[in-house]
Amino acid sequence: MTTQVMLYLVPAAGVLALIYAFLSSAWINRQDSGTDEMRTIGGYIQEGAMAFLSREYRILAVFVLIVAVLLAAANAGRTDSHPLVALSFVVGALCSGLAGFFGMRVATAANVRTTAAARQGLVPALAVAFRGGAVMGMSVVGLALLGVGSLVLLYYQGAFFTTEAGGLDHVRTLGVLSGFSLGASSIALFARVGGGIYTKAADVGADLVGKVEQGIPEDDPRNPATIADNVGDNVGDVAGMGADLFESYVGAIIGAMVIAGSYASQYPDAAFRAVALPLLLAGVGIVVSIVGTFFVRTKEGGNPQTALNVGTFGAAGFMLIVTFIVARLILGEGIPGTKINGFNVFVAAVAGLVVGLLVGIITEYYCAKHRGPVNRIVIDSETGPATNIISGLSVGMQSTALPILLIGVATVLAYSVCGLYGIAIAALGMLSTTGIQLAVDAYGPIADNAGGVAEMSGLPPEVRERTDTLDAVGNTTAAIGKGFAIASAALTALALFSAFQTTARIEAIDVSNPVVMAGLFVGAMLPFLFSSMAMRAVGSAANDMIKEVRRQFREIPGLMEGTAKADYARCVDISTAAALQRMLAPGLMAVLLPVIVGFWNKYALAGLLAGVTVSGVAMAIFMSNAGGAWDNAKKQVEEEPRDKEKNTGKGSEKHAAAVTGDTVGDPFKDTAGPSLNILVKLMSVVALVIAPLIAG
Fold this sequence. Notes:
By secondary structure, the protein is mainly α. It is 82% helix and 1% strand.
């Protein structure tokens, strides 16, 4: 079977993932949805989540249309690019948007069914929650490969993969494909920023007024912000995380393809195989991920974390074996005169996968309850909010050291065995089993929502205990997922940066050049400015939410007594409006600045990308881990015996300090931190798309 024929298997693998997602969705919808009250609460959550997504996508549709027209116009009549980059952009945005829509639709149906299943036991509840997450995971990888694979076949049949002057016309073909990554990145940034603002505005309002001022549980139905809080879990951690990894997945594939295409003028056949390899590895990764989902099983009284680990790590181990076979089969001896061959590609993929897992484990250590870093924050909370904040900031800063070192090791190792192509393959190796990795991530908010439904429905304590068990595992998987997302973002950004250098014909970046140094300074500053905008948006939206929750407690007679119903819809509307209004400024800054700098000086743009990548990755690790540690420090205090004299447990001053830290950490870990992952990738892919226009 020739490599060209094998390319037809790539969209077929995407279709296979979508079939799995459809069958899982149908199975979930057949499950019991519980009592009338449970269905009503679940309906509120689903209605709020889908209403937000619908309004967000209407705004983004206008953005996509405008950018597509500009891309088509800018690339018309050129010999080094093609206006079809606009088609790729639209398809990338559409696929990313559809993945978020499908995933969140099913996640908001799975939450109430997880609660209903928890009435029977832990095993059926885990099955529903995980299958719900698997729909998100398989929708992401399925639509990504179906989109990219179909475009490759379209452009190949359309003679864009042609031999001109003895080589593959890679500039036109792969430059056109980079538009797909730009579309995915654009949707991802707005989804992450908008979703992060939404969820944290609701969370802060629910915590500060409900838990601290009124002393009621987090998911108490008397709390007006509780539905908005549960909606936010889906908006931020299902649709947002899905868009994030969709972007990394696509960026790693296309980055590797562009770099491989740079060898086409000398070795067209070998280069074509290297171009095809990332697509084929991603296709095989879908099959491996599907197989891995069948190993996520536990027994009553067992540990759900073990079940999830067996599926995730088992799939990763099997993928290494398959990568070795596929790389050797496709590349063989590789590209003459380079280090790119089957074995070296395997080594680069191993480096990426191992470092991704290690960064996830380190992240879990810094964020997990009853570990040293969180224990320090708990102890420091005894003396008030100030020492809690100082301790959390210290933990977050310290947590950047090992992940940055590991990312550096992976970069050097991958480059030493395979050059720039190796860095892109390392990113893809980390992301090759995204299907099951994202399934585990999306499982977390479904389990969290299930606990909220159980609390609001007044179900027996044993049901809430089972959903809490699932939720506790979800907190761990979320921490690991955030670390994994950051590590993959770093390598993907480097891969896209390398592809930009290749396409823009930048042989070296001389830091003694004042233009480059100016770009470095501005790039290093951007994550701080971007984070400031995101944090300010959360603070402003949360202020509106707090005022509304206080108003309802004050003006609705019988609300605290449980005889009156809160106005949930008003709180949902506040979060929705705030997120949509405030997501535009940081998003547009990330898209426009590389264009402005690039058309001024391509070397300044290279410096800008270097600065934003280094600063952004470190800042993302710091913010995500500090926020995660603050969150679990609060949970650890809440598990203590309630005793005001000993200053332990809920209602104590120690608890109030821990809640303050968690409130500060919320926009750290769920808004600004995760959005920085996308910032560094989006700016690199914007640079890649305009590279043919500024290369001269």
